[in-house]
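Lecture notes, unit on protein representations.

Consider one protein chain, 455 amino acids long.
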Amino acid sequence: MFGLSAEIQSYIWEYTGLIAPSVVFISVASETAELVQFFKSPHEQELDLQPGACVSIDLIRVFEADYIREISLQSGSKTEGNIIGNVTALKFAASIGGICSIKLFGADWESDWLGGARNERGVFRYGIIYIKSSKLRICYNGLNCIEISDLKQSSAKSVLWDREDFPSLITDPDRSLIDFGQDIAGLSRPVIGTAKPQLFASLPLCTKAGYITALTVYHSGTGILRIIRNPIVAFVTPALMIQTTMGRVFTFGSFINPQLVKNNRYMWILLEGKGNITAMFYEIPLYQAIVRLGVVRGQSFSDDTILMPRYHNVSFPKFAGPDAGLFLSVAHLGGLERAEICQMAGRCTGLLLHFSGRPSAVLGQWYSNSVAKRSCIYNGQTDVTDIYFYTKKFKNYSIVVNIGFLRDSSVEEADCYVFPIGAHIAWWFSKGYDAVCLWDGELIDIPAQSKESYK
């Protein structure tokens, strides 16, 4: 069961119902006393989380996962589960059959995880309950705990996330989402009830060392199919373009050719608020592509200047037409301190460039160690004047096969392109073609008559 994907497991549980584990357990259990204890457990329970009490958790194992069978309060002191102050929130981890563990939060304290172990075999969803009073409502299905809610807000919509470190400050993800169907295409969204929880996925864009530098977005005609942090090959139709507060423009998908945008009708969304974007999140779809996407903001900036959306106006390489599905990567080599190359199957796919006084950048495509070979080709210890890209033509494609640095411009081969250090370079690529040239593009404001939306 746990070897299946989360979506398939959800379908199975929806079909069989949450009582299925109870039926299976009754069939195989030999201890009648345990069954009687399950039948006597209350369907609903009220719990008053007052300071000084201690939370006690009883567990039951169903289908190789530990679920909370009962939550109770005890007097006295234990090493874990002590309520040392007012409880303001409760975070929980749930698997397919119910709630597995809980964690209590106060204004300046938090408990350990209480309950079952969250091992790699289980599929866990995480949620948070903000407690207005100290009282909780605990719901059971006769076997284990299936729901926890604030006693004064029992009708609140249930929201679940795919990871423990989800953006807990976003209490209502619905209000923060960009809906591609509603905000871009103008389609009406059906009213969502509170019976079933909404599932969301969070994608952090920063790590301890800095910010994630690349994303891959898979999409179809109806929306985004998948978003991952590690950049891998994705040759698809243009889908998404993002402009940062620093004015940088990034395209997820192949290059958006301005000449193919009918009547200059760019569809864009201007994000409200200030600050860098630290994460993205989206609603997990059950039967269709991702169409609802949001961002999480970090530190705010004092500058209140709003940069209007812009796009790259640039000439295409000679070997490709406007609908060739080309990807574009641009980097300025000024202040270069270190360069790493990425190679896969005889093709040089890209460079990771480290600079003095500004963030690192990727020129071309950058793959993980598991699928590509990566090595350093320049460490800043020698003086170089130029960088070269050696290409090789085959029957149906032409790719970069070698990249290096020169102390002087002595390479004169026809298939070798040489650029001075400090140049602004554009790398065009597709599944079977590479073209490297000097950047001759410019950023142009998106036409004012384009459709606008605000979030």
